[in-house]
Design a protein that fits this description.
The protein is an alpha/beta fold. It has one domain: Metallo-dependent phosphatases (Purple Acid Phosphatase, chain A, domain 2), CATH 3.60.21.10. Helix content is 29%, strand content 17%. It contains eight helices and ten strands. The strands form two sheets. Strands 3-2-1-9-10 form a five-stranded mixed β-sheet, covered by helices on one side. Helix 3 packs antiparallel against helix 5.
Length: 231
């Protein structure tokens, strides 16, 4: 069975494990997390440390992990002196990340062993922008935010990283007719109160970011049968 979840944003890690248990997730299954396990909530670094040792869980890069990587200069050695010696360009990158909820992630890195910091940065640098999986003759494109500047004639290799990381699709947007696109990034409550805390499904895409970073409970989706699991 293949499961997908997105935008956990530091959601309590113990509850996340309870959610996997409720879905009977096992070593025979596979989980794709479609980016943004960090920031806004206080448990993001717990996910990062856990992911290092999971053989059947894969993190796709989210825009928040990309912001972390843009500030990786901090993590060679995280200390106050490094923060004082940042260049204007580095300060701008850090300010942007902090404006997007980096507080808890930075604190987590402060208390982490250096070897763990290095391992996490290396892991995130290898995280893919998208994956394609097939289940019961249905193909799925998994990515963080859908596809910005979508063109049916475009190859996936022709999209930029920002196209995968920072897109905000409209309800009327269409993607591939023969491939279901699954993404997060845009909390579903942004599309109207009637979608609050719910997955949105259209005939060409599925948005699974139900707003865990804003107090909603995340939903785990099993794409084999489209069953949803929540606490």
């Amino acid at each position: 069975m293949i499961y997908v979840i997105s935008d956990l944003h530091g959601y309590p890690f113990v509850k996340f494990l309870e959610l996997l248990n409720k879905a009977n997730f096992s070593s025979d299954d596979y989980l794709f997390i479609l980016g943004d396990v960090i920031d806004r909530g206080m448990y993001g670094t717990e996910y990062l440390k856990w992911l290092l040792y999971q053989e059947n869980v894969e993190l796709l890069l989210g825009n928040h992990e990309a912001m972390l990587l843009s500030c990786s200069f901090l993590f060679e050695e995280v200390n106050e002196e490094n923060l004082r010696n940042l260049t204007p360009e580095s300060l701008e990158l850090l300010a942007n990340w902090k404006d997007n909820g980096a507080k808890w992630t930075l604190e987590g890195f402060y208390t982490m062993e250096q070897d763990d910091r290095i391992s996490i940065i290396e892991y995130l640098r290898e995280a893919p922008l998208y994956e394609i999986v097939s289940v019961k003759n249905q193909d799925f494109l998994l990515t963080h935010s859908g596809l910005k500047n979508f063109d049916i004639k475009k190859k996936l290799s022709e999209y930029t990283a920002n196209d995968f990381l920072w897109n905000r699709p409209k309800l009327s947007d269409r993607y591939y007719d023969d491939i279901k696109t699954v993404f997060g990034h845009s909390p579903t409550f942004m599309y109207g109160k009637e979608y609050s805390g719910k997955i949105i499904k259209t005939d060409t895409w599925i948005n699974i970011d139900v707003g865990a970073g804003y107090g909603y409970s995340p939903i785990l989706l099993r794409i084999d049968d489209m069953k949803e699991f929540s606490l």
